[in-house]
Amino acid sequence: MNWYRNLAEQGDICLSTRVRLARNITQYPFPARLSAEQKREVGEAVREILKDEALQFIDMTSLSPAQTVSLAEKHLISPEFACDTQGRSLMLSEDEDISIMICEEDHLRIQTILPGLSLDEAFTQAQKLDEKLGSRLSYAFHSQLGYLTQCPTNIGTGLRASVMLHLPALKEKGALHRLSTTVAKLGLTLRGSYGEGSEVSGDVYQLSNQVTLGISEEAAIKNLNSIAMQIITQEKQARAALVKDDDYLDRIYRAYGILKSAHKLTTNELIKLISFVRVGVSEGILSIPAEKLKELTVTLQPATLNAAMNKALSQSERDVLRAQRVKEELL
Prior knowledge:
Elements: E1 14-23, H1 36-49, E2 55-59, H2 65-73, H3 79-83, E3 89-93, E4 98-102, E5 108-115, H4 119-134, E6 141-142, E7 146-147, E8 159-166, H5 168-172, H6 176-185, E9 188-192, E10 204-209, H7 217-242, H8 246-261, H9 267-282, H10 290-299, H11 302-309, H12 315-330
Antiparallel strand pairs: 1-5, 1-8, 2-3, 3-4, 4-5, 6-7, 8-10, 9-10
Helix pairs in contact: 2-11, 8-9
C-alpha cells in the first residue's frame, strides 16, 4: 500500500509512520570516504542478499532529476540522497512501503513507511530486513556503544522512528511551542515534515525520537507511540472546539471553494488549502475521502508532476495542471 494513498489507525491526524535503521559494514570506511568502486560493491552485496525479496534495485544515476526529486517528495529517500546520486543505489518495493538507501550518510538506511500510526508494524518490517542483511554482512558494532554510524547522533540503536502529524488546531491555539519544549524533555523532537531544518508546510509536523544511545529500539518505539497518541488526543479535542468558531468554519468552506474552482494552484496554495479541508473532513463538515486529500498533496508536488508527465513543465503549466487534477478529484 502506498502510504499516501491509504488511511490507517488515527489516519485523520497521523498521516504516516516511518522507521529507519542506519547500518554500516565493518570492511568499508564510512560513505564519506568510499571510492566509487566500493560504493558499487556495497550496492551489489545488498542486491545479492535481498534477491529473493520483492524489491527493485535502482542505480540512482539511471533516474532523471525529476524522478529522483519525486522520490524525496514522497519521503522514500532523503533530500540529501537526492542531491548526489553518484555511486548511490536504492532498493524499493513496488508499493513503496520499503526503501533502502545505499551509501547515503551510512552504508545502509533501511526504511519502512506506512499510513497512519503504525509504529510496531513498521519496526517489525524494518527489523526483518535488518536481520536478513545482518546475517550476511558484518555490521560495525561496539559492545558498549551499539551500532556505529557516520554521524555520532545515530550511534546506539541507529533507529530513527517518526510520525507525520497534521496539527492545525494545536497551532491555532498557539500550543506548539510549549508542546515542542515538552517532547524535547522526553527525548523526542517536533519539526518540519522533511526533518531537520525543514519548514512546516500545511500544518504537518514530524515527531521523531532524538535519543539513540542507552535505550532499546522497543523502548524508543513505545515512547514515541505513547507521546504521539497524547498529541493526537489533544489535537482532536482542539479541533472539536475550533470548528464551533464561525470564522474558522468560513475558512474551511472558502478553502474548499477555491480548490474546486481555481484555474491555477501553486504547491504552497494547495497544501495550505488542503490543511483546512482536512479539518472539515475529520469533523464531518465536508464529505470527501480523506485519503484522496493526502494523495493530492504528494502526487501534485512539482517533481512528481514532471515525472508523471515525463517532461519538464514550467511552473505555470504545473499550476494549471495541478488545479485541473484537484477539480477532477473533488467535483
